[in-house]
Amino acid sequence: MNPTVGTPLPLRLGISVVVAGLIVFTIAYAEKLGHRGQSALGFLCFLGTAAAFSNNLQRVKLKTLFWGILLQFSLAYAVLKFDDVRRVFEVVGEGIKTLIACSDVGADFVFGSLSKPGGPSGFVFAFKALPPIIFISSFFSVLYYLGVLQLIVRFFAFLMRYVMGTSGAETLSVSANVFMGQTEAPLIVKPFIPRMTKSELLTLMASGMAHISGGMMAVYISYGADPVSILCTCIIACPCSLYLSKLVMPEIDTPETSDGADIKVPRTHANAIDAAAGGVKDGLFLAMNVAAMLIAFLAFIALFDAIIGSIWPEWSIQKIMGILFQPVAILMGIEPSESERVGSLLGIKLAANEHVAYVKFTKDAVLGMNPTMKLGMGAGMGVVGAAIQDTVCLSQRSQLLTVYALSGFANFASIGIQLGGIGAMAEGRRSDLAKLGLKALFVGYMVTLINAAVAGMIMEPKPVQYFFNP
Prior knowledge:
Number of domains: 1
Pfam families: Gate, Nucleos_tra2_C, Nucleos_tra2_N
Radius of gyration: 22 Å
Helix content: over 70%
Organism: Telmatocola sphagniphila
Number of helices: 20
Shape: globular
Family: Belongs to the concentrative nucleoside transporter (CNT) (TC 2.A.41) family.
Largest sheet: none
Distance between the termini: 61 Å
Strand content: under 5%
Keywords: Cell membrane, Membrane, Transmembrane, Transmembrane helix
Protein name: Na+ dependent nucleoside transporter domain protein
């Protein structure tokens, strides 16, 4: 068999027809299928869509695909079904909340009442949501200096490489994405990036887009997102990133680290204090970037809404995105009656980024659970206020599945971010990175949708409350 021959067109068309039929069937009979049946067919549709876009379906290693899916389901089932495992995640989640509370102490000293949601100023995003990024970044920098993060990363890397048969470098980088961002995790395997195969590069990029960093994890938890769900989706995204990347672009070359990668990451700081200071600098840059990005993207959304509203008063960006991504939301397992609202968030996440979608998703992000601000919140708050009102109406199941689907960096801006970050580590591979950008975005986005579908199949029909509801 010639390894360079791609997927035959008849096979590609056949898969596309089957997937299209499954999509139509799932949407038409969503209510009769039940929540778990709806998510199960959605999982097959997402997997089939990835197979239809595969470079060379005949070269896909069934071992990687089978064990990757099994590992993803096993991890999700353990977290969502076993009380002891869930309690461990709850303890970690409470630890993150404690870190956020500690950052509040520093923010209160510097900003005073401006950092207190219950104060006279209400919830001020810049003074409440951004300080945790700075502290968490500093904290993780210290853990990295002490070697704690490396131990956890190596454990996950060993587990996945052993059962899935992926290369050491790509598996190590995927594991690092549980805690690190899409440009920080590749630093773990920086020496190997110049010689990575294209399949490994795709995995490297897609995994970064399928995860969120530790700092952003803390921010979303501070918004009110359930810590267990955030942690669970970041972990199950690891095997999913690997098997989905290998499904879309199977390995046809021999990776340099096919037998494993024993990498010793050099320490770049003199001591723990220096590491903490360096983390503060990185966190400050990230916080400023988040603030600037939100200002720009929310302003653009408001501008587009004003333009569209002047022509068609009943239309908005949110409504258009909701209609376009409504089928995707249904395939995840969202109630059909709520699918348009969740679909709008999925579209905004892709077109803008996940943070803008989260701000629109959680009223806690804007109102800070301040009951004095609930009256008339739709007036004067533009698209954010309207989206927040919609969020209140979402069922608990839809809220949880939306958390899974939004927790990833998969958006168009991430292509540029990775070109700059990863490209700086391997200048000679910049053209390959650019060519793989859209494919990595596709895989990363599909991973978040599959995570939601997997959770939808396993979770109880009536889960506990994850977001504040008045």
